[in-house]
Here is the input.
Amino acid sequence: MTEAVTAPFAVVERTDLVPRCPHCDESLPAVYARARGVPLGQGRTLMYFCPNCLKVLGFAQGRMI
Ligand SMILES: [Zn+2]
Here is the structure.
């Protein structure tokens, strides 16, 4: 039987810093998002992209009302 080992992991909220796009290197005070799927029921997929170069930054899945 194997026992799972959990390494410590921390998320530090930094509201004083502005993230930068990894594609065009512009600062990102905002990101654009497009959603696919029905909000009720099976959940939906969100796609986030840079407002400057329009390249995709990431995806998120969740249920939203
Ligand atoms: Zn960009």
Summary: The chain has a mean pLDDT of 88. The two ends are 42 Å apart (CA to CA).
